Amino acid sequence: LEHARMELPDETRGDADEPAVEAASEPAAAEEHPTSTSRRSVMWLTYGIIPVLIVGLAACAGYLLWKDSSLRAAQAASVSAVPAATDSTIKMLSYKPDTVQKDLEAAREGLTGAFKDSYNALTHDVVIPGAQQKQISAVATVPAASVVSATAKRAVVMVFVNQTTIVGADPPTATASTVRVTMDKVGDRWLVSDFTPI
């Protein structure tokens, strides 16, 4: 009996060791799971977020380049459209009775589109005959002009005009006005496409 009693703790001890082995194997299995999760995270970053970020950065860079190019074109338009608008305004509103037809035909060279057609009709039907019959002369000056808006192909210029008109032997009369002049880029020239007194 004493021998049996001594053997009994060995069997009991063996049974108690088995859960310890199983418990020891569980952390090993648990260690594999974070590794696979990390790999999936890396794959997702590599094939998901990073390409999207690259495309987004490329799009932003392209937009910034386009914006910079547009701003440069608008600045260049502002520089060149203002003197063109000033010159055309002076030519359109200045003439002498003896040379009125030649003067206004030269002014039409700075116009374009439907406005050129309407200006041509007005000068031929009204201004030229009236200047010749009543001996009307006019001189226009532009003390100031500024850009309202500008793109590479179109600019709107505010032109401040002083015009002195003489009819026959009457004393000269002076008028001041403000005109909104729309300029279109046609080839390498800025031409008047609209002329609206304000």
Automatic annotation (TrEMBL):
The chain crosses the membrane at residues 44-66. It is found in: Membrane. GO terms for cellular component: membrane. Keywords: Membrane, Transmembrane, Transmembrane helix. Residues 1-36 are annotated as: Disordered. Residues 1-16 have a biased composition (Basic and acidic residues). The keyword Ribosomal protein does not apply. This is Mce associated membrane protein.
